[in-house]
Structures are given as C-alpha cells and as structure tokens.
Structure prediction request, 339 residues.
Amino acid sequence: MKAAIVRDKQFVVDEIPTPVPGPGQVLAKVRICGICGSDLHLFKHAEELLSTAEAAGMVIDKNSELILGHEFVAEVVAFGPDTEQRFNVGDRVCSIPFRKQGDQLLNIGTPAAQGAYAEYLLLTEEFLVPVPDALSDEAAALVEPLAVGVHAVAKSAITDSGSALVIGCGPIGLATIAILKMRGIEQIVAADYSPRRRGLAQQMGATLVVDPAEESPYQSFSDEPNGEFVVYECVGLPGLLKQIVDQVPKQAKIVMIGLCAGDDSYTPLTAMMKEVQIQFVYYYTPEEFSQSLEALSEGRVNWEPWVSSKINLDGVANAFRALQDPEREVKVLIEPFSK
Ligand SMILES: [Zn+2]
Prediction:
C-alpha cells in the first residue's frame, strides 16, 4: 500500500506492506484523514515530544516508521481473529485514535501505531463507531477534532450565563467556538492575529473577534468582574499561560487545550490573588467522541468553513508547508485514493 511516511524530517510517499489485522482488529481502507495541529507539532518537534510522551508513560516503538494521521474515516475491509464482525465489509466507520495491542493502548498516528496518512490502517473493532449515511466523509473527518472541543467545554463546566474567551482560532479554537455556540453561550470572544481565522471564528459562532495586536481581548470582560469568565487557550506556545494569568480578571477559569511541549512559568501569587483556576485537558472520552459525531450528524455545527482544502498523499509535504501560514490553510483533508 501507499503511505506518506516521515523519514529524516521529510515526507516520502512509498509502498509498504499492507498491515495484517491481529486479534480484535480490523483492516480498514482510509477514505479521508484530516491533518491535525498536533501532527504539525509531531513532525516539527518529534524528538522532544517523544521524550515527553515516553516520560509520561506512552508506549513508543522506536523501530516503526512514523505515519501520522488520527482524524480518519475508513471502510471495513477485513477482520482479524477473535472479532465479533458487527460490521459489514464496506461499512464506513470512525474511531477514537487508539488501538489495542495485547493489553496496551497505542496512540494511532504516532510512533506507537501507524496512522491514516496511508491507504490502509489497523483499527480495534470494539472502538469502531458507524458513520451515518447522511454524514459526508468531510464532516465525519471532523468528529475527532470537534471532540476535543466537546471535552474542553465539558471540563470547563461553563454555565449558560458564562462568558468565554477563545485564544487562538486554529482548528481546535474553532472546534471550541463551535461547541460553545452549540451550547448557547451568549458571549464568545475569539482572539487571533490572522484576519482569515478571525473571519472563520465569526462564521463558526464567535460573537466578537479581536486582533490582539490592536486591542486586549480581555477588554470586553473588564466591566463585569463578578461574572463567570472562562479562557480557552488553543495556541500551545510557551509564555501564553503566564500571559493569561497576568491578564485575566479575578475568579477566571483557564482551560489549557493547546499542545505545548515547552516550559511555561507564571507567578503563583498573581494567580492566587485572583483566585484563578487552571484546568488542563487532554483528548476526550469515548462518549464525548460519540457526542461529537452526533452533533455533526444532526447538523448542529457549521463545519463547512473549517475545511480549507483536500489533497492526496502526494500533497502532504506541500500541505504541511502551507499550514504554517494561517492565511492559507485551516483544516486540510487527505484522500489517499484520490488521483
Ligand atoms: Zn487531532
């Protein structure tokens, strides 16, 4: 099969053996796969992210080649041994991006388990979720990133009268905005330096967009010091946590969603005097993954503006370059079988 493999910090499209499903696994044909911000981080900072992940207990197979891709929609092709075969061959499915291997749980699209920047991949049967016929591949590819928003908003425990500030309007910021909008949150302020991303934030439900180079995104919240205020950090750069702690109003809650592998220090006294709460979030639960699929299936999310282009495996290297520029790309979808 064909796959876009990371070799020596570059993408190489190469023929490799099609994997064979083990116990409880299915072989699935990739219909579409989104490029995630974490893929960009993994591509750029593979080594430091890997040592951080390893230290945190993630299983890493150093001998396997890195094939990214965890935002996939696939078609069931064949069943391994010890499977229940609840699906038919040809059924469209998606799944949380984990694969069971014996008693280990491997992250798909990392050095631990091959991802979906390839024609085929192995999935764990019990994690498969059917994709309803009415849901397009494009929309279904957004189930995974949208689930990150579902989880972040759930963890923030924001109430209907709360005010939200979303910092960073890349895919995860947009997912968070979409879920806040779906939840009926009245004030959703979004901050990003990119005019295009501010426009998208508005299309996805932000009630006010701010260019942080021009004005403070906290400004519109300063007159309501007793209101509930939640900041969703969706950038993932060192220094942002400190900046937020320094600038938020008293009693604010900070939800850290952006993937940051560098150090970020803040002054606890500042956070204490404001009685700030800081919540870190990671992935989502299987239930939240299903809620995300449901939200998209029921047409409750305006997802179309989110997808900026579709490519095949040969286009991955270029797409990674284009994704560096927020004016050019937002969410790129790979169709491994398209010409
Ligand atoms: Zn992702």
In short: The first strand starts at residue 2 and ends at 7.
